[in-house]
Design goal:
The protein is of the alpha/beta class and 264 residues long. It has seven helices and eight strands, in the order βββαβααβααβαββα. It has a six-stranded mixed beta sheet with strand order 5-4-1-2-3-6. Strand 7 and strand 8 form a beta hairpin. The relative contact order is 0.20.
Amino acid sequence: MRFVGIDLAWGDRNTSAVVVLEPRDASYETLQTLEWHDALGSNEEIVRFVGSIDKGDGLLIGVDAPLIVPNIHGERPCETQLRRCFGRYEAGPLPANRRICGGRLRGEGLLHLLRTTLGTTPEYRFPPLEPTVRRCLEVFPRSAQCALFHLKRSLKYKAKSGRSLQSRLAEYARYATLLESLETARPSLLPPSWLSEVPKRYGRELKRYEDRLDALLCAYVVATYWHYGEGEHCCVVGDSRHGYILTPVTPELAICLRKGAAQA
């Protein structure tokens, strides 16, 4: 069983990062990093890299990018619902629609290529601990950070107006420390050797480190979902027709998301 996280660039100019986790032993309780790459270009490059680690059994992929976007404008119901529950944590997603993306959705293309090449589908319903499941699911790192680490506000490491390099570096270091804390979680994540090596200046190296962190978290999110299924630890917000996002939850957030689903 392999768990793959992909931090997918929305356009073709920027690179994407992929991190692959595998169980350390037959108990599946401890995960370790098998491979990673933070400078992948096209969807084809990404799929070739994922294919190189595929053993032909279980393969669960988490992608930080919209995968199913049928709406021409506005936002998907899953984004409305996530923002309603995660907005106070400043962790609501941006709206995705076909007009914003210029009619071409990179995530859709990647999903299609993964399906035709590796046989992964976006169907999110499957039994926990199913060793031969092959799926590709949309995930969202910011909501995952707040739920997994019980944050009051999402981490502020992205490049935005008013954020200094020093403040961003501090948030990267905090992010790395939080990821290291998953070594005592269930499933347990052994920290990769590069995790604490935060670049100290602006540029390509810092951006790729950021992408690597998010890809690592995406891989851990789908591994958690594989262990527990939907319920106390994870929720799937939305559906396969209108688009969905998989996110870890706290008990309070699970109640909020279920309430929103009932009202939709």
